[in-house]
Amino acid sequence: MLRHKKILLVIFLLSSFMLFLSKCINHAEQGNDLRGRRYAGSISCRQCHQAVYDSFITTSHFHATMPAVAENIQGDFSNEKNIFVYNDSEKVVLEKRDSGYYQVLYKNGKEKKAYRFDVLFGRRHAQTSLFWQDSHTYELPVSHYSSVDGWATSPGFSSTQPNFERFIGTDCFECHSSYIGSILTASVKGITEEVKKETLIYGIDCERCHGPALAHVNYQLDNPSEKMAMYISKSSSFTQQQKLDACAVCHSGNDKMKLEPRFKFKMGDTLSHFFMAHTQPNAKDFDVHGNQYSLLSESKCFLNSNNMTCSTCHDPHANAIAGLAVYSQKCLACHHDATQQHVCPETSKLGEAIKTNCIDCHMPQQPSHAISFKLPGSTTVSSYLLRTHKIAIYSDSSSIRRNLK
User: Fold this and answer.
1) H-type helices in 184-299, by residue range?
2) In terms of Cα–Cα distance, which of 55, 39, 53, 49 is closest to 231?
3) Is the pTM of this model over 0.90?
4) Over the stretch 264-286, which tens digit does the pLDDT of each residue have?
5) Range list of β-strands (E), 117-189
6) Between the N and C ends of the chain, which has fewer C-beta atoms within 10 Å?
């Protein structure tokens, strides 16, 4: 009997110890995240939200910045396809070496300097890269564009003179990463910014949008039967404008005077506390790249709705690649009678197109004025096309007519 009790005691102690270890493993530990003591780290979310998490980590948001490793880098590094000739004496060759991937500057056939791919920006439409130099990041002069499946000048760079001196500060990281620390120093020469490499959290993660989750994760793990999400930002509890502002903090352009760093923005905050608004905004100045909110806010669909937000059409946890037919059905969810009353000035052959392709007519792809590029050996500016978010009737419909035939 005594021996039996000892065995039971040992089993109890082992069970308690295993339970303790389990909690240590599954619970988010305070202070592990670089953003502060209240953050859990996005991997903690997967314990309860596996399907959503696994979908989100495939998105362009999650890959807005990435480490420059082989599986992330786009572009051909093979002979002939990896050379950008600037002039008679200078060229940049994109090379794979044992220590990484490089853009190598050659002058009169001799290597001058090799600049390594360190941080990647973007994945779906285009990918540009940065290299670290001390506590600063600089943009590499050659980028990869999916539309031409090849290398071309980075946005705004010369096609005749190589330039490795474009400094990239935290402004770009604020919309392409979840966090990076910096130090501002004032001197007689002005204000300089040093970026802390070791603090970079790549991509847009769960807590960038949902806010610090340490308390939420630990509470839900301690109370698995509790179905109400506690201690976390829930979009269902916010107003239409608050939901819009959560996206607009990065999707309303970069030409307004910034009052606070975007990294401080949390779900439920007000955008006007972070930026000084335009006095008289001109819709013609809104670029299709990065200013989706301003374009949407000019649309009659939006102005006539009292509840339309970005998530009306977009699932923030999935890529926007559902296809034109899927998005057209979202249009028809509100415009029920469009198939009977729709009049198209361009063609009478609408047929099934009204059900499967509202998008090309009313949200056509347009060139970005903020992002353009030149191919090797060309002085012609190539357009970076993105779909406008101003829902309207467009007169230039050549591409539309082709799609409707």
Assistant:
1) 206-210, 214-222, 240-251, 292-296
2) 39
3) no
4) 999 899 999 999 876 555 656 78
5) 119-121, 126-133, 136-139, 142-145, 150-153, 167-168, 177-187
6) N
Spell out the long-range contacts of 343-347 with Cβ–Cβ below 8 A and sequence spacing 24 or more.
Answer: 344/404, 346/397, 346/400, 346/401, 346/404, 347/401, 347/404, 347/405
User: Are the C-beta atoms of 81 and 150 separated by less than 8 Å?
Assistant: yes
* 3, pLDDT greater than 80: no
Question: CB–CB of 373/353 below 8 Å?
Answer: no
Reference 109, options 89, 85, 95, 94; nearest CA is 89
Return the percent helix, strand and coil in the chain, to nearest 5: 30, 25, 45
Chain centroid to Cα 63, Å, comes to 7
Report how far residue 388's alpha carbon sits from residue 363's, in angstroms, rounded to the nearest whole number: 5
DSSP secondary structure, 312-323, as one string: GT--TTS-S-S-
Gap between the Cα atoms of 172 and 69, Å rounded:
20
Under the banding of pLDDT at 50, 70 and 90, the label for residue 401 is very low
Query: 225, 178, 222, 227: which is closest to 203 by C-alpha?
Result: 178
Which amino acid, one-letter code, is at 141?
P
Average of per-residue pLDDT values in the chain? 85
Instruction: Return the pLDDT at 55.
Output: 95
Instruction: Give, in order, the Cα–Cα distances in Å from 326 to each of 43, 244, 333.
Output: 30, 22, 11
Residues 6 or more apart whose CB falls under 8 angstroms from that of 289 comprise: 368, 370, 371, 384, 386
Residue with tokens 């926007």: 320
CA distance 181 to 21: 33
- Choose among 140, 142, 141, 122: nearest CA to 131: 140
Residue 305 to residues 150, 171, 271, 326, 389, Cα–Cα distance (Å): 42, 33, 20, 21, 15
| Residue-wise DSSP of 359-387 | HHHHS-EEEEEEEEE--TT--SPEEEEEE
Q: How far does CA 67 lie from the centroid of its chain?
A: 14
Cα-based angle 285, 290, 294 (whole degrees, multiple of 5):
55
